[in-house]
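Here is a complete protein record:
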Amino acid sequence: MLEIEHHAAIATLWLNRPALHNALNEALIDALTHAINTLANDAGVRVIVLAGRGASFCAGADLDWMRRAAAFSEAQNLADAQALAGLLKTLYRCPKPVIARVHGAALAGGMGLVAACDIAIATPEARFGLSEVRLGLIPATIAPYVSEAIGMRAMRRYTLSAERIPADTAWRLGLVHEIVAADRLDSSIAALARQLLQGAPGALAQSKQLLRAVADGSTSDDTLLAETAALIARTRAGSEAREGLAAFFDKRRPAWQEEQD
């Protein structure tokens, strides 16, 4: 159901339900949430890749799960929804960079997973979509992440129309950062991961926190501006910054890069 593959400091989480296009159910949601939390606390892991086995990245919710959910009580449905919301929050707030490796279908909850990752690389054949309204549902738990990725105006269109979004449109909207040929997908992600490994682990985690803090902020918010000044002051005084600056002036690599050899 879920495979974890380690290569040096890079961990790949493989959704492994290929016969069902890696559709989400309660077991996969729980396993993925647990795995991300575990990797987040593993000092040996610096970058996480989220990928899917078979023909698709993730085609949304498992039909059998949806069929069973139709008979759930309101309390059971709430617990179910909270589990998916918890997964998306865990993924989005992971202190380590997370790359989505997207091919085939990335629909509904699958599109939410892509949006919750920091970076998304896709093949030209990748397809996205918010299909919920055609089933009498709404894309509730994924909406904060997808709307942040593509903007509210585009979110209105694709939520209401439920039309398929081709890879080039997903790139234009900002959901996908890069489109590469299928035979270059893994090498492109490996090259990107090497770039991420050049950054200091603590600085990467703090940068993700910073971006969340300023996402809804304003340059008119004096409190926010003061907090950003205090944050860089604390960062400068930290051990990573001292090592990074010393390495720069000494014309050597900082310790966190040496560790990757």
The mean pLDDT is 95. The longest helix spans residues 74-92. The longest strand covers residues 2-7. The CA atoms of residues 58 and 110 lie 5 Å apart.
